[in-house]
Design brief:
Blueprint lengths: L1 H24 L5 H17 L9 H40 L8 H10 L2 H11 L5 H8 L3 H21 L13
Length: 177
């Protein structure tokens, strides 16, 4: 029985590997990430080989598995980025504070962390990466006008969050992109 399961899995692997790899490559930031997604998807398929559908349905089933694996990878990456951002803010607060500075870096970091992810990304692309609207539009795959509108809204939400935190918006530089 184990040989039948192994043969069945190997046949599906051979028939679907390129499809699943292509699916992952089109959705991942790097070939390494795509390879990880594919490896994990097939590892899951091996553990669940008894649920493996017959014929062409196997490829669709594997797409579903790869989609779930990709979602898990994105959530993990997001959690790591959140932790890194918090650590960066703490380090900046610890080493960059000057006694005469009226800016509370920890309050700014907290306000930034509390923004929706899309707003935070826009603000960071402008403030930290130094990108202009056209460059941001290219990164996000949208129009310059969409970037202009989203950035305006993100800045308004950040200004409101900073005001709630007691940080004077006049002290925070939010240059136009």
């Amino acid at each position: 029985m184990d040989d039948d399961r192994k043969d069945r899995f190997e046949a599906v692997y051979t028939q679907t590997y390129e499809h699943i790899l292509g699916y992952a490559m089109r959705r991942c930031d790097s070939p390494e990430d795509a390879a990880d997604v594919v490896a994990e998807a097939f590892a899951i398929a091996w553990r669940r080989v008894d649920a493996l559908p017959a014929g062409g349905e196997a490829r669709l089933w594997l797409y579903g598995i790869a989609r779930n694996v990709l979602a898990n990878h994105r959530r993990s990456r997001h959690r790591r980025q959140e932790r890194h951002m918090a650590l960066d803010a703490e380090i900046a607060d610890l080493y960059a504070r000057s006694p005469e500075s009226g800016i509370e870096l920890s309050a700014i970091a907290r306000a930034l962390r509390e923004l929706p992810e899309d707003d935070r990304e826009l603000i960071m692309l402008v403030a930290w990466e130094g990108l202009d609207r056209a460059q941001i539009a290219s990164v996000l795959g949208c129009s310059r006008n969409a970037v202009r509108i989203r950035l305006h809204r993100a800045r308004k939400r950040l200004s409101k969050a900073l005001a709630v935190a007691g940080v004077s918006v006049n002290h925070v530089v939010m240059e136009s992109a």
